[in-house]
Amino acid sequence: MLGLMQDQPLLITTIMNYAALYHREGEVVTKAVEGGLHRTTYGEVSRRSAKLAHALTKLGINQGDCVSTMAWNSYRHLELYLAVPCKGSLLNTINPRLFPDQILYILAHSEAKILFLDLTFVPLLEKLADKITGVEKFVIMTDRAHMPETTLDNILCYEELIAPEEDQYDWPDLDENTAAIICYTSGTTGEPKGALYSHRSTVLHCFSTCSKDSLGISNRDTILPIVPMFHVNAWGTPFAAIMTGCKLVLPGADMTGENFFNLLKNEECTISLGVPTIWLALLQYANSLDGNDFTDLAIESFVIGGSAAAPSLIEDLEKTFDATVLHAWGMTETSPLGSVNRPMAKHASLSEAEKMALKIKQGRPPFGIEMKIVDDDGIEMARDGVAFGRLMVRGPWVIKAYFKQPELNILDDDGYFDTGDVSTLDTDGYMTIVDRSKDVIKSGGEWISSIDLENVALGQPQVAEAAVIGIAHPKWQERPLLIILPIPGTSPTKADILAYLDGKIAKWWTPDDVLFIDEMPHTATGKIQKRDLREIYKDYKFTD
Ligand code: AMP
User: Of 61, 120, 200, 474, whose CB has the highest number of CB atoms within 10 Å?
Assistant: First the structure.
């Protein structure tokens, strides 16, 4: 027997229409690419999204057609987030930090018909233009006064494009499983792969992120997503902001600690999200200011994800801003939020040291996400916080197949997706990432976690960034090599670093060597690029 409740589809359109009705005065602030702060409201964003939808229809964008963006976090990008999926078309947000060949691959693979781009990316596109085949129009996301001189053909100006259009649109009644947004993985091996989110998966992910045990976003917040809208939908925060009507602050192209700090302070942000390198930039800027007591700022939570949050970073952020750090884990294939670290009621009486030990875990899966760890034969392992194995996840916002790659079977027999991460799960369900399966160091039949070693090394006061890679070893198979980017103006030695590690790690984890570099390579999403480090040190040999 079926229930008799209404079968309303879960659509991004319902989030937009809800905001247009109930949050029309909710504020959206952007550090504009053209300079200065731009202020608008959800009411205005939804009207302009309707205008954009009409303009797209006139440009021949039909249901199922792909529109790509290469853009920073801004109100215009937000309009594209709404107009494109709500008219039944497919939004593809491209990470401009990918290699040119990967960008070309994504444009071709997604069959993008139009590319919307910020002024910043015009030179990049000019260089690629000869090799782009399917894109019929390039829309530059600015007004007439700021249109650049360019060698690109078929260009349009965003503001001119939408200006003449009606500000109401008859949004189609879509099936909730209609494809909405496609994000490509950064493709550290092979070509990028497409994760194709549906309206339904996006709305369910959005409900989940707003819940109190997850990011807990509410109407009373002011949210500053520094994580880019070109990387996994800025962790879903644009939709969470629109759904709750909270004030949304978008940092634009200015990825400096100074901009983050000024927005945090002047716009009175309560939640901000980003990868660890963002917070290092914020802290460096804050520490450079005179009389640096920032404990009065409105900021309540910093959400750290994308890479492991080291205890030293958590402590620095919490102390400097009198705020809480929420460690979160996810991936492009999980929309992305798969776990968030919040303490449980029973943790209230823990000591500070115990709270920190809990905080560095990647957190518990929210309702909707199921996790297990398995060994190399797919056999489930103990949830005892000690055993570690391949992390497998399933849930309504987890991928079931890559876009146009049905031949790749990426799920196990029970429908779990293999994340490629190695982790533990404790009895309460807190998950700890031990490593990426390809980064873990296999020494004498045991595993050494590169993340754990890096986390400890980062506590040394002269260390800005630390990376550990495995180097082939005749006796032990692999041994750890620690590579350090020192804090500017300091010159730590190998002996300093090893003395610091002594007693904080198991003796046999001690790196066989410590090297110092001037610049740490990063991926397109701000993580340390271990593939490059492996390439640089491929001929490296330990001396003893
Ligand atoms: P991406 O698809 O680019 O978002 O990358 C996802 C990968 O980033 C995950 O599979 C993890 O390896 C890594 N990752 C994300 N969040 C964390 C975290 N909090 N700690 C450690 N690694 C993380």
Answer: 61
Distance separating alpha carbons of residues 461 and 467, to the nearest angstrom:
16
For residue range 267-305, what is the model confidence (pLDDT) as tens digits? 999 999 999 989 999 999 999 998 789 999 999 999 999
185 catalytic, yes or no? yes
What is the spatial distance between Cα 217 and Cα 305, in angstroms, rounded to a whole number? 16
Polymer length of the chain: 544
Closest-CA residue, ligand 1 atom 6, reads: 331
**Active-site hit among 442, 494, 504, 510:** 442
Closest CA to 254 of 262, 244, 243: 262
Half-sphere exposure of 435 (CA within 13 A, CB side): 21
CA of 54 to the centre of ligand 1 (A): 38
Q: Is the Cβ atom of 341 under 6 angstroms away from ligand 1?
A: no
DSSP 55-67: HHHHTT--TT-EE
Q: In sequence order, what are the residues at sequence separation of 6 or more whose Cβ sits closer than 8 angstroms to the Cβ of residue 53? A: 83, 86, 87, 169, 171
Nearest CA owner, ligand 1 atom 7: 331
The token duo for 88 is 């039944």
Q: Ligand 1 centre and the CA of 357: distance in Å?
A: 20
Q: How far is the CA of 366 from the centre of ligand 1 (A)?
A: 17
Pairing between β-strand 389-394 and β-strand 370-374 as defined by DSSP bridges: antiparallel
Question: How far from 478 is each of 341, 439, 472, 484, 498, CA to CA, in Å?
Answer: 32, 11, 4, 19, 19
pTM: 0.93
Report yes or no: 64 and 89 within 8 Å, Cβ to Cβ.
yes
The residue type found at 399 is I
| pLDDT tens per residue, range 208-249 | 999 999 999 999 999 999 999 999 999 999 999 999 999 999
For residue 220, what are its two tokens?
Answer: 């009373």
Domains of the chain: 12-255 (3.40.50.12780), 441-536 (3.30.300.30)
Pair of tokens at residue 51: 């205008």
At 226, give phi and psi (nearest 5°).
-90, -25
* SS3 call for 112: strand
Of 326, 419, 334, 412, which Cα lies nearest the Cα of 368?
334
Tell me the C-alpha distance between 335 and 325, whole Å: 21
Q: Is residue 79 flagged as an active site residue?
A: no
Structure tokens that stand for 526 in this block:
């701000």
Alpha carbon distance 264, 114 (integer Å):
34
Active site annotation includes 442: yes
Counting from 1 in the atom list of ligand 1, the atom nearest the Cα of 305 is 19
Q: Is there a catalytic annotation at residue 256?
A: no
d(CA 87, CA 76): 16
Residue with tokens 């160091």: 441
Q: Which two tokens stand for residue 511?
A: 């790196």
81-113 pLDDT, tens digit per residue, is: 999 999 999 999 999 999 899 999 999 999 999
Specify whether the CB–CB gap between 123 and 100 falls below 8 A: no
